[in-house]
Amino acid sequence: MKQEPRFEAALAIHLFKGGRLLLDARVPFGVVFGGTDVNEDVKDEHKRAVMEEVLHKARFAVAFTDKLKERAEELLVCESKKIYVQPQGIETRVASHFSWSDFLHSTGVRTKQEENLRVFLLVCGLRRVKDPLYLLEVFAEWHNQNPLVALIIIGPKIDPVFTAEVEESVKRSVGVYLAADLSQEELHAAMQKSFALVNSSLSEGMSAAILEAMDLGLPVLARDVPGNAAIVEHEVTGLLYSSPQEFVSMSRKLLDDHELQERLVRNGKNYITTCHNPMKERISYQKLVETLH
User: Fold this and answer.
1) pLDDT classification of 2: cutoffs 50, 70, 90
2) What total number of domains does the chain contain?
3) Residue 2 within any structural domain of the chain
4) Partners of residue 83 on adjacent β-strands
5) Where does the Glycosyl transferase family domain lie (predicted)?
6) SS3 98
7) How far apart (Å, rounded) are the C-alpha atoms in residues 82 and 15?
């Protein structure tokens, strides 16, 4: 940057994607770890070197969980005292004029028993690390046995090549649908109308969709990877599965066990209130940003 900067400080999201853009900036900055940083980008020697330089120059770094901080310290050369743990604060807002029937129709779901339909909503950006096709085959088989279950994948089309793969695969599968992306408030309304929130990621930092589902009173079924296991306690705040077959088995149990449904919803909501308070998050970031002056 040859011009004098027009800002006094900066905060970057993701060490590699965002932090590298600040390496030549003549302003103090902080960074927030993304799951991709320590789960994927760290495997690339060039990206790892860039992230270490970002950490060296940053005044502070924020990790969403203790596990994420530990992994960063294990895989990257960095000063431990620079890394602070601050979970995401969660606030949800539901669109008041959202039509569930219109959403299902526009997504391609055709049923005369809408009130009995059980929608499993997989919220993710369409990229390979989110692995949205992981459950495709077993869910289609399950749908053939029980036409009142449906899997709807929804999220922004981040990777155009992979998005085309997802679109083609979904077209060939029964009971699995790909919805157009919605605004945040509309998405929260769709989540609230769904039966359960699904996560099938190969790796995660801290899934906002999982936390939002808990806040909205939605049971969560998440793939058992470290980032998910850090926020989902199995059979307490959600269900963790390790294979597509286990996902179906747990989903069937959840459908039949109303006590389990109620327990997961109650505990999930309590967990969000206790551990993901947005006011606490604001105060933490205000204190950190003050160190940039």
Assistant:
1) very low
2) 2
3) no
4) 61
5) 114-270
6) coil
7) 14
Same-domain check for residues 184 and 50? no
Q: Residue 258 maps to which CATH number?
A: 3.40.50.2000
What are the pLDDT digits (tens) for 243-272? 999 999 999 999 999 999 999 999 999 999
Q: Do residue 78 and residue 104 come from a single domain?
A: no
Q: Are residues 78 and 105 in the same domain?
A: no
- The whole-number pLDDT of residue 3 equals 54
Between CA 111 and CA 218 the distance in angstroms is: 22
Beta carbons of 292 and 30 less than 8 angstroms apart:
yes
Give residue 132's domain range: 100-275
Residues 143/106, Cβ–Cβ less than 8 Å: no
Question: Considering only CA atoms, which of 116, 141, 142, 122 is closest in space to residue 223?
Answer: 122
Q: Tell me the per-residue pLDDT of 45-85, one tens digit each, with 9 for 90 and over.
A: 999 999 999 999 999 999 998 988 998 999 898 888 999 99
Single pTM value for the model: 0.88
Contacts for 77 with CB less than 8 Å, ≥ 6 apart? 52, 55
Beta carbons within 8 Å of 151's beta carbon, 6+ residues apart: 119, 120, 122, 135, 136, 139, 143, 175, 176, 177, 198
Could you read off the pLDDT of 121-166 as tens digits, one per residue?
A: 999 999 999 999 999 999 999 999 999 999 999 999 999 999 999 9
